[in-house]
Amino acid sequence: MELKDDLKRGLWDQNPIFRLLIGLCPTLAVTNSVINGLSMGLATFFVLVSSSTIISIIKKWIPAQVRLASYVVIIATFVTMADMFLAGNFPVISKALGPYVPLIVVNCLVLGRAETFASKNTVPNAVADAVGMGLGFTWALVLLGVIREIMGSGSLFSIQLLGNWFQPWLIMVLPAGAFFTLSIVLGLINHFSGKKGEAKHQH
């Protein structure tokens, strides 16, 4: 049951983007299309799960004085692997994501889970937490990417969905569109979460 709770935590109750509001820099920068959001989410997922697993395994042998530096080195190793994989196999996506894949090294989601969870829990719990957080981060990026790409380009995964009658909202593929979309989604989530909480309280 505990593993299930660790897995579910990041999907909704502590979703990195919609609940904890962390990792927003790549969220706002790369979600102008679904493929970019999905790619960033999967890269972060890989780094998060891999680094959390290794840190949980070797936590007893990491001196407290250098633990953060050690975590950064471990995270940077997997970030480099993800960056090289994208550059070698998906150069167009790699170019579109720009510096944001290397910046996963300093993503507070990855380093935060390493410090607050992976370094203090067993390997199965650390893996479950990382998988949940990684999936939560990924689906949030995909959702924002879906909204922005449809409204900004009339397409999804670069496949045109809306006809010539549709006038794309240029703002949705610009940085301002990221803030606009995120604020609307957060507002809706908070609204319906509040309604649900009130209903439970009444019962």
Keywords:
single chain; 203 residues
Give an account of the 3D structure:
The chain has helices spanning 2-9, 24-30, 34-58, 67-89, 91-97, 108-116, 123-153, 175-202; strands at residues 155-156, 159-160. The protein has 203 residues and is mostly helical. The chain has a two-stranded antiparallel ribbon. It is globular. It has one domain (2-202). Helix 3 packs antiparallel against helix 7 (123-153) and helix 4 (67-89) crosses helix 5 (91-97). The mean pLDDT is 92. The two termini are 26 Å apart. 68% of the residues lie in helices and 2% in strands.
What Rg, in angstroms, do the CA atoms define? 18 Å
Question: How would you sum up the global shape?
Answer: globular
SSE ordering: HHHHHHHEEH
The tally of beta strands, per DSSP, is: 2
Counted up, domains total 1
Oligomeric form of this entry? single chain
Average pLDDT metric? 92
Calculate the terminal CA-CA distance, rounded to whole Å.
Answer: 26 Å
Largest sheet: 2 strands, antiparallel
Determine the strand fraction and express it as a percent band.
Answer: under 5%
Question: How helix-rich are the residues, as a percent range?
Answer: 55-70%
Count of DSSP-assigned helices: 8
- Class computed from helices, strands and strand pairing: mainly alpha
What topology emerges from the helices and strands here?
Layout (H helix, E strand, L loop, with lengths): L1 H8 L14 H7 L3 H25 L8 H23 L1 H7 L10 H9 L6 H31 L1 E2 L2 E2 L14 H28 L1
Antiparallel strand pairs: 1-2
Helix pairs in contact: 1-7, 3-4, 3-6, 3-7, 4-5, 4-6
